[in-house]
Amino acid sequence: MSKIGYTTSRDPAKKTRSFIHDIIAVVPRSKRVVRGSASLKYGLTSMKNQGVETAIIVNSVKGNPNFVRFYDLSAKITELPYAIKIRGVTLFRDYNKENKKKTRPSFSIMISTLNNPKEEEILKKFLGISNASIEEIEKKNYVTVYADYLDKDEGIIFIEFLDKENSQVGPRIKLRIVDRKVEETLI
């Protein structure tokens, strides 16, 4: 059973589809859900029926991933009161000149200098970060997610993914977490 389902808005740009592929390659217990031309309600219901607990929808603007919305599917389908505004993405293929293959991790851990528990929890939900310690998973395949502010006043956060050998394995993301006013429940 997948914990996190990633999908796109309708008719996504190629870079947004590639971004989803990069993310699911480094997020344990995640899956890509093809939305096609389905309505939001139908897509979320389909994910819930597939056992997905958190739905993440990546929207495109001008050909780039731009805005990420979160939905809790554990009970009723509810949009969560925050979102991520993507300020920049470098895909894995853009800096992977040796065509190094990625192996999907079993776990992910986060090393953060944010000192902001709310933002760290949102990033953990977005990236499937486990609460396991490095000692528990050191013999298993894992990825380390590094999070740091690029501009603390603006709230711009830089994210990168490294494997056990400290090699880059996922996209590099600049983002900002924003609060949202949302409906109580969708379905």
Name the descriptors.
single chain; alpha/beta; 9 strands; 37% strand
How would you characterize the overall build of this protein?
- There is one protein chain.
- The chain has a 9-stranded mixed beta sheet, with helices on both faces.
- It contains 5 helices and 9 strands; from the N terminus they run E-H-E-H-E-E-E-H-E-H-H-E-E-E.
- It has 187 residues and is α/β, with parallel strands linked by helices.
- The protein has one domain: Rossmann fold (3-Layer(aba) Sandwich), CATH 3.40.50.10480.
Summarize the structure.
The chain has 187 residues and is α/β, with parallel strands linked by helices. 22% of the residues lie in helices and 37% in strands. The protein has one domain: Rossmann fold (3-Layer(aba) Sandwich).
SSE sequence, one letter per element: EHEHEEEHEHHEEE
In the predicted model, the low-confidence regions spanning at least 5 consecutive residues are none
Number of domains: 1
CATH class: Alpha Beta
Q: Whole-Å distance between the termini?
A: 22 Å
- Principal-axes geometry comes out as globular
Structural class: alpha/beta
Bin the strand percentage.
35-45%
CATH topology: Rossmann fold
CATH architecture designation: 3-Layer(aba) Sandwich
Major pleated sheet: 9 strands, mixed
Beta strands, count: 9
Helix content: 10-25%
The H-level CATH homologous superfamily, spelled out, is Brix domain
Oligomeric description of these chains? single chain
- The helix count comes to 5
Provide the spatial order of strands within the biggest beta sheet: 2-1-3-4-5-9-8-7-6
Rg value: 16 Å
Task: Report the average pLDDT across residues.
Answer: 89
